[in-house]
Each structure stands twice: as structure tokens, then as C-alpha cells.
Amino acid sequence: MHCISSKLLFMLMLPSPLPILGLPDHKDLTGERYPGGTPPNSRRTLDYQFGIIQLPIGERDGASGQNTACTDRDTAIISITDGVLKDSRGRTGCIVANRQFLFDYPPLQHDVLFSGGFSVGKNGLLALGENDVFYACPSEREGSSKLYDMRIADYCRPVLLEVVKLTRC
After folding, report:
1. In this predicted structure, what is the pLDDT of residue 109?
2. Distance (Å, whole) CA 104 – CA 33
3. Cβ–Cβ under 8 Å, residues 84 and 128
4. 80, 90, 88: which is closest to 45 by C-alpha?
5. CA 56, 123, 37: angle at the middle one, nearest 5?
6. Which InterPro entries match (predicted)?
7. DSSP code string of 36-51
8. 53: which strand partners?
9. CA atoms 65, 132, 137, 10: torsion sign
10. Which one of 30, 56, 62, 95 is most buried, by most CB atoms within 10 A?
């Protein structure tokens, strides 16, 4: 088991707790708007919660599905059930019209393209449909980036998203 020292990708940015909101069944969110297929040997449901870290595309061989990361009170703890990602605040992982990958509270934005179709490969890489490559584009905030399921600009770089088990350090 390897412990990852870098910060987890998705952090909770809200200073005060919000009430838990009921989330309708994922089929009610987008109907059949899931991307087709899944990579070989991938799982659409995991029986544990996890974090997600960003890896450079060249580190595909280093992804093992066995890595861990430290968690703190700002860590977004994520689960996947039937291809639907949810975080510890009740938000659903989705791809919206501008192709950004984000977690949103229900009701989801009107321009959601996909709110399901995610899976985790044997190597621990998150995939949407058959694709496990995402794109990181620098944002206004120094040192941070926004994630997309396709390249939206020349300055965006391809990345992998590795699912990591969480531990208190």
C-alpha cells in the first residue's frame, strides 16, 4: 500500500454544514443520458468510500488501485453506486454542458449531460463510459484547475483520476 502525500482533488469548500438533501434515484436525473460502455474489468459499484487524486497521463502504469491518501475535515468523501458518483455532502458527480466534471446539489443543473456512467478500473482509474482520460485546465485560482471530459482549450492537459482509499493521518 502506498500513501499519497499530495492533496486530494475534490475538497469541500463550504464553511458551514448544509442540511442533507434527498437525492432522487439516478435514473430520474438524466434518464438514458449515460455514456455507453465501460472499460474491461471495471466496476460501477464499490463497497467503500474514497477520494480522487489527479495523475499525469504518463503515470498510468503507476496507478494500482491500492493507494491511500490522508483525509481531513475538508476532504470530499466519494462513493460510487451503479455508475453514479456522490460525495459526502449529497452532491452528484456530473458532466455539464461546457463538459466540466463537477459535483452538484440536486436538483442538478438544467444543462447536465451525464450524471452516471462512471466506473473504476482494476488499476483504480476513474472512467466515464469507456474513457479514463480527463482534462485539467488551469482556473483563476492559483494552483487549481477545473476538470473536463474532453479537451476544451489548447492549454488543458490530459490527466488520469485515481480512486484512493482514505485514512486519517
Report:
1. 84
2. 17
3. no
4. 80
5. 95
6. PIR1-like_C, Yeast_CWMannoprotein_PIR
7. S---TT-BS--SS-EE
8. 162
9. negative
10. 95
3-state secondary structure 71-124: ECCCECCEEEECCEEEECCCCEEEEECCCEEEEECCCCCCCEEECCCEEECCCC
Instruction: For the chain, give the number of residues.
Output: 169
What cell was used for 61? Answer: 502504469
Q: Judging by beta carbons within 10 Å of its beta carbon (0-12, 13-18, 19+), is residue 134 exposed, middle or buried?
A: buried
Answer yes or no: is pLDDT of 83 > 60.
yes
Q: Is the CB of residue 11 less than 8 Å from the CB of residue 72?
A: no
- What predicted TM-score, i.e. pTM, was given to this entire model? 0.80
Sign of CA dihedral 14, 19, 25, 28: negative
Give the tens place of pLDDT for each residue, 135-156.
Answer: 999 988 777 899 999 999 999 9
123: nearest Cα among 64, 67, 57:
64
